[in-house]
Every structure is written in C-alpha cells, then in structure tokens.
Amino acid sequence: MTVSVFKLPLSMLCFRTILTRLKSVRAAAKVKTWFLTMAIATPVYAIDLYDETTGQLTIAQVMVGDTKYSDVIVTIAELVSGPSGDYPYVEGQFGPRPDTYDLKKQQLIIPAVKVGSTVFKDVVVQIAEVLSPSPLSEVVADAGFNGEIYPDDFKLFVADDLPDEVARAYREHLQFAADLWGNFGPLEVWIMGSDSDALTRQHEQWCQQRLSWGIGFKSIECERQRSNNYWPLGDYLDIATQALESGRPMQNACRCGMGQYGFHLMMASAPWGFFKDSPFADWSGDGFDLTPAHEYWHILHFSHLSNKDEVGNRRGGNADPTLSGPDWFIEGSAVYMANVALTKQILSGYVSVHGKLTSECFECEMRAQMTRGLEARSQNQGLKLGDFSYEVGRDAIYGLGAWGIAWLYNHVDNDRVLIDSMFPNLQTKGWDASFQDSFGLTPNQFYDEFEKFLDLPYSEQVKILPIDADGKYTE
Ligand SMILES: [Zn+2]
Q1: Which site among 68, 111, 154, 338 is 20 to 30 Å from 179 CA-CA?
Q2: Which residues fall inside 5 Å of ion ligand 1, going by CB?
Q3: pLDDT grade, residue 46 (50/70/90)?
C-alpha cells in the first residue's frame, strides 16, 4: 500500500507527537496492570482506539494469517506510514474491517483508528509491546478473505507476445486503484496475448505458480488443463484471436474466483487500448482504460467474503447473492467506482503509456451508462432494478446499476460507505441487513424510489452526480 502520495494532515502530526512523547514517559509495568483492568471493561468497538493519555492502542480485531485476534492492547514503537486522511467519528460509519499483521515486515496495518473524536485511516505502525496476555482468537477464512488489507502487492503475469507497454499500463492502472481503495489480495493478474506458443509458455508459468503457491493444486491438473485449451487461460487467447480475425477490438476480463486455492484471480484478454501500435486498421486506444479498476473493485468486494463457508467465496469464487448482493449491485458498483478511479487518475495528471494526457469524462461516462440502462429497461417493461440480472436485461445491471450506486451515495451524502462500512459487514450480517444499515431503507423501498428517479428527465437526474456547474467531477 503506497500512502506517500497523500500529504500528512496537521492533526496527524499531533498524533505522531503524542506517540513519540508517550513512548518516552510511559512506565510500562504500571500501565500494563492498569490496562489489564481496563480490558475487561472495554466495550467491543468496530475500529481501533488510540488513547492519547496512555499511548495505548486497543485493536478491535487483527488478522494474523488465517487467525483473527480480538481486543488486543498494544503500545506503539513507531509510526511507519499514514494516514491517508482523517474524518470526524460517526457511530457505525467505520469498520468492522480487521487490522492486518504483516508477518514479513512485522508491521501492523490499521485501516481506521479513532483518536478522540477523529478517525485516521490507513495507518501502519510497528508494535512495541503486546499488553494483552492471551487475547481471544479464532481460525477464520484464509488470509485475504476476511475483508482485511493484504500486505503483499498483486502479481502480474503478462503473455510474452504482448507489447512491453501493456504490462506497464496495466500495472499503473491497477496500482492507482489499489492506492485509492486499499490493497486487497492475494491477487494474481494474468493477461493473455494472441500467440499460441506464448500461451503454452504462460501456462507452464501458471502451473509453476500454482504448485509453488501450494494450496490444493496437483501437477496432474496441469495435464488436464493442457488438454482443455489451457484452461482457464486459453479462453482469453481465443477472444484476442477472434478480435484480430474480425477486425473488431473486442476484449474481456474477469474476476475469476479461485477462492478454493486461497487467492484471487483476475484474467484479461489483450487490452487493445494499451497498445501503442494498434493492430486494427480503423481503431486505436489512448492508454486509458476503465477495465483494470472495474475488475479490481470486484476483487475488493469479494475479499470480504469467506472462502471457507458454504455461501461465501465457494469453489470457483461464486458467492451467494444473499452475501455478495444482487447482480446490479455487483456490476453497478464496479462501473461507478471504476469511473471514479479513472477520473481521479486522469485528474492526477497521469500520462498514459502513449505519452498522452486526457480530459476527464465522469459525467459523459454516466450519461452513456444511463442510455444503455434505459434501453434495457424499455425492452423489459415493468422490471425494477432488483429484477435485472446477467440473464435478464443484462445492460441494466451495469448502466442502471451504476446510477443506483450514485443515487445511494447521494442519498447518504457519503461515497465511502461501501468500503468503510457496508462491505465489512457483508459476511456477518448479509447483504439485505448491511444495505439497510448503510442506507436507511430496505432494498425494496430503494427499488421503488429509484423507479421514480428513472422517470425524471436527464437534466434532473444529473443533479445527484458529484459534478460542478460545468459538468466536471468534484470530490
Ligand atoms: Zn464486472
């Protein structure tokens, strides 16, 4: 997680001073006794609490591998990085995302910590001393399937027949999204080209990677995959070869499960928009693409669902909609958030691998999604947002889904609500209850309200978007 792009806010400087000051004046033994008494009386909070007077941190929950520890009290040796920002504390608005203990670096990754009435996000510290003698612990889902920030970066595997700039462009787009929303994983990203010899080599690499990863994969499965069009990689080569044959720049990508092996998989066919030299006579991209952030959002979403229970991230990575949410919610949030991420990337002055800048198109992308969604709606008269699916009125789950998310964010005036509070509650509360807690209305009440909104003219609809009078994106 790179947080150095953020400026250190003034209030966090105070936090840093407090950490340093209290470290030097604390009488550890005395504090320990006092805190053991306190621990019994401390109510369970959804987020960590830092006590300015004692210099002690009460960790609500922390993941160490696949084990979750609760109510751990520690002292802090050093602030390593962060925060990414600070917010006024609002009950129920943060967490319960667990901290992550990075065993390699021996660092504690804290998604949110409350200090007084302020919440600081994305703080990394080195622990000085653990004061809880035997905190409660339980073995839960594999690392990366409990909604926790994952300490290691994603791994990118790009077919060797693709031009060099493709790997760079994909990495830069994905890293921007990970920096913006947090690092979730363990994530492998496999991008296939169009050359069958390259696919053979890439599949060898895949097999080595699976065997070295060591969870539930046997070398005989490699044999089977070879005779099955190099599954799961081969289908993505087919998309690229079909595109080249037809002269149409088709491409596809997926969040492709693999929860049963304890990792998240993203696959993509040749991302033509990242090619400096387009193989198509009448089409070329500019090096900007919504797809990496869209798929990464899916990874983030499904990182909150256990890979060990019956209805979470089951074999193949499918989750029960009672946990993950319905199709419109899965795709609509990905469309909307990818639009936010690419817009912020463009506004940050990102120069594409083509050496180009571009202007943001947040509102025009949303306009296109509305057109696409309304078309599907008019072809399926009488259906509401919750009735559409991958099978019925497919474009509506993307187009109207994105507007559904925009409506909900506007309704609570908070565009961090999914990451900060709704997703971390999915596994324990389920989608319906988490939805109601986050937005203050039931899904059915929302679908009815949203119907009225869809009947408004676009000039009214556009008012819910975070844009200024000139139609430009505002935070
Ligand atoms: Zn999607």
Answers
A1: 68
A2: 331, 334
A3: confident
Q: Is 165 found in the same domain as 85? A: no
Q: What is the chain's mean pLDDT, rounded?
A: 89
3-state helix, strand, coil in the chain (%, to 5): 45, 15, 40
Q: To 10 degrees, what angle do helices 327-347 and 164-181 make?
A: 110
Centroid of ligand 1 to alpha carbon of 95 (angstroms)? 25
Strand partners, 138: 68
**132 & 170 share domain:** no
Distance 341 CA to ligand 1 centre (A): 15
**Looking up tokens 């009735």, which residue turns up?**
387
Same domain, residue pair 270 and 218: yes
Residue-wise pLDDT tens digits, 431-465 = 999 999 999 999 999 999 999 999 999 999 999 99
- 346 pLDDT tier (thresholds 50, 70, 90): very high
185 pLDDT band, cuts 50/70/90, is very high
**Ligand 1 centroid distance, CA of 125 (Å):** 35
Domain of 30 in residue numbering reads as 10-139
The two tokens of residue 19 are: 């950490």
Question: Quick one: 341 and 423 in the same domain?
Answer: yes
The pLDDT assigned to 312 comes to 65
Q: Which amino acid type is present at position 222?
A: C
115 and 190 share one domain? no
Task: Give me the number of domains the chain comprises.
Answer: 3
Domain co-membership, 173 together with 24: no
| 189, 122: one domain | no
Residue 101 Cα, ligand 1 centroid: separation in angstroms?
30
Same domain, 335 and 468: yes
Give the mean pLDDT of 163-180. Answer: 98
End residue of a domain, out of 139, 165, 189? 139
Examine the pLDDT at 327 and tell me if it is beyond 80: yes
Q: What is the CA radius of gyration of the chain?
A: 23
